Amino acid sequence: MAIQTRNKRSATFSMASMSDLVFLLLIFFMLTSTLVAPNAIKLLLPASTSKTMAKQTVTIYINDNYDYFLGEVLVNESELSNLLQSQLAGEVEGTVVLRSDKSVPVQYIVNVIDAINEVNNRTQAKHKVILATSPKK
Fold it and tell me: Over the Cα atoms of the chain, what is R_g?
């Protein structure tokens, strides 16, 4: 007569706890991603009531010290056009979002627009500039 054990060991693995863990991680990353500030450079944007949403290709910042940043990299005004051309390579109708401090004189904004127009003339593209603003209270 063969002796049999009452408790049989199962070789299967329960995935219930794994799916709970995945959902908890998903919720954690969704909550923490909304807490990340979208502006890497701290600026006081000018206020406006207009709302323009566009897919941004490149972001340029001008801070209150009149420094130009392409993304988060500090650049000179003289090399802005060449760096923009390399960032916009392969794009025909790219959008450049200009985030400028509200204390910056208009001439610095015009310098960015001129650099993008120069890139458009060199590459026969139709890149456009959008000035980022904060909502008017």
Answer: 26
Find tokens 């049999």 and name the residue. 4
How far apart CA 35 and CA 7 sit, in angstroms, is 50
Residues 74, 64: Cα–Cα separation, whole Å: 14
Q: What is the per-residue pLDDT across 30-42, written as a single tens digit (0 to 9) for each?
A: 887 766 655 566 6
Q: Is 68 exposed, middle or buried (0-12, 13-18, 19+ CB in 10 A)?
A: buried
DSSP H helices, 2-102, are 16-35, 80-87
pTM score, whole prediction: 0.63
Where does the chain have alpha helices with state H?
16-35, 80-87, 106-123
Half-sphere exposure of 68 (CA within 13 A, CB side): 21
Q: What domains can you pick out in the chain, each with its CATH number?
A: 47-135 (3.30.420)
CA dist 79 and 55 (Å) reads 24
- pLDDT by residue (tens digit) across 100-131? 988 999 999 999 999 999 999 998 888 888 88
Of residues 127, 129, 116, 58, the one with CA closest to residue 87: 58
